[in-house]
Amino acid sequence: MSTVQISAADVNKLRQQTGAGMMDCKKALVEANGDFEAAVDLLRKKGQKVSAARSGNATSEGLVSIAVSADGTNGKLVALACETEPVSKVEDFRNLAQAVLAAAVANNPATAEELSAIALEDGRTVAETITELTGKIGEKIVIQEYVNISGEKIVSYIHSNGKMGVLVVFEGANGVDITEAGKDVAMQIAAMNPVAVDKDGVDPATIEREIEIAKDVIRQEGKPEEMVEKIAAGKLNKFYKDSTLLNQEFVKDSSVDVRKFLDNTVKGLTVSAFKRVQLGA
Known about the structure:
The protein starts with 7 loop residues before the first helix and ends with a strand. The protein is built from 11 helices and 6 strands. With 281 residues, the protein is α+β, with helices and mostly antiparallel strands. It has a 3-stranded antiparallel sheet. A 3-stranded antiparallel sheet has the order 4-5-6. The mean pLDDT is 92. Associates with the EF-Tu.GDP complex and induces the exchange of GDP to GTP. It remains bound to the aminoacyl-tRNA.EF-Tu.GTP complex up to the GTP hydrolysis stage on the ribosome. InterPro entries: EF-Ts_dimer_sf, Transl_elong_EFTs/EF1B, Transl_elong_EFTs/EF1B_dimer, Transl_elong_Ts_CS, UBA-like_sf. Keywords: Cytoplasm, Elongation factor, Protein biosynthesis.
């Protein structure tokens, strides 16, 4: 048993330094015989144990954060996930989400792994900071998704609940401010969840599956075999219209598709890529 006297001031100092709970800080200081560095290590180890114990838990809540560069040519999205909605509203969690996004903007990592290895202002890496907050909160926290995307013009959208974000890459703006039209398209993506920009971007396996499902339905309806291929092709075209962005009916004006809406905005304007991220999907 430690004979070192641990004062309330010592406990508070460690709490301010680490963000851990008062009782956890006191126990760590007692176990470390008053050694602050050793106590910090003990708290970090506790965080790592909590993280490992909850590693299989689902993370369907959290916060999506987005930053677009001043010149509009790069967008970054960080989806920081946790287990429950109350934790997603905790100040420490929200501050961490902003710190991780700021680290992404400052360092331009290509992957979530690279982002996790970046040191924050206090010298700890993103991964270490997440582990420590996991220990403090007692809930699994992960970078669910990280997006780093570039192009001629990037427009973003975050849904009001903070759990969905969209980044869209536009080409052909030719210097015209397309922000308003871009937001409309980003909101279309959020609402309609297209699988690709256009027909040629659809995964061949998805196309094959849609054709086979269509053929089965047609045969069950008793249609002649010689008509199956033709009808299936028509159903595939309907799939493209419903599920690929440029061919979708524009939500704000059903008389045009998204391709036509963009061309009406600026001749030749189109979307070359997009990324839609939704926590809990």
